[in-house]
Specification:
5 strands; alpha+beta; 197 residues
Length: 197
């Protein structure tokens, strides 16, 4: 017959085995949650950086309506504002938003130029010069800009950027990367009412 002390020891041994089994079941789930929080924190940070970059570019472009270099200056402003991203995974579109200040919906599956937007400049990142370079025909030029005061049809500059964020661990069930994008539209500032207005 077991003594009271022996029975107590036997019960404690069974408890230790149950704790080990519970830990083996719970630990992977806890690690998945912790790594998921870390990964999506970095993705959220990059998403905010993409948003800030396109808004900085749209503001810069809207301030240069009569300048021939407004599109390239817009791309340079995006590069400066998004410098912390590592823009090798980014594609930039600077487009004529027309008379609307609502962002154009880009449709990559649409095929065609600039995701279906007709007046658009597409830029890709050049790592050797650390800048965006024009990779499509330059058809959004100063000639497309109507910013004469008191006239109908004044248009706006749109900036759209896609960025591929890679996850650090790569073993999460969400995949190895995620596409982030943002779009900003700002009306061109009016110029004095002189020729060619």
């Amino acid at each position: 017959m077991l003594t009271r002390w022996a029975r107590r020891r036997s019960r404690h041994g069974d408890d230790r085995g149950a704790v080990a089994v519970e830990a083996a079941l719970i630990t992977p789930l806890v690690l998945l949650i912790v790594f998921g929080i870390i990964e999506f924190s970095f993705a959220f940070k990059d998403d905010l950086a993409v948003s800030a970059a396109v808004r900085a570019g749209a503001r810069a472009g809207s301030a240069e309506p009569g300048q021939a270099s407004f599109a390239n200056d817009t791309a340079a402003a995006v590069a400066r504002a998004g410098g912390a991203l590592g823009l090798a995974n980014a594609t930039l579109y600077i487009y004529d938003a027309g008379t609307s200040t609502a962002p154009v919906t880009f449709n990559a599956s649409n095929g065609g130029f600039c995701g279906g937007v007709s007046i658009c400049n597409q830029y890709t990142w050049n790592s050797s010069t650390s800048s965006f370079v024009l990779s499509s025909p330059n058809n959004f030029t100063v000639a497309n800009v109507n910013n004469c005061p008191n006239q109908s049809g004044q248009n706006a500059v749109g900036v759209f950027m896609t960025y591929r964020h890679s996850f650090l661990t790569g073993f999460l069930p969400f995949g190895k990367s995620i596409n982030l994008s943002d779009n900003a539209v700002v009306s061109f500032e009016p110029v004095p009412n002189v020729a060619p207005c």
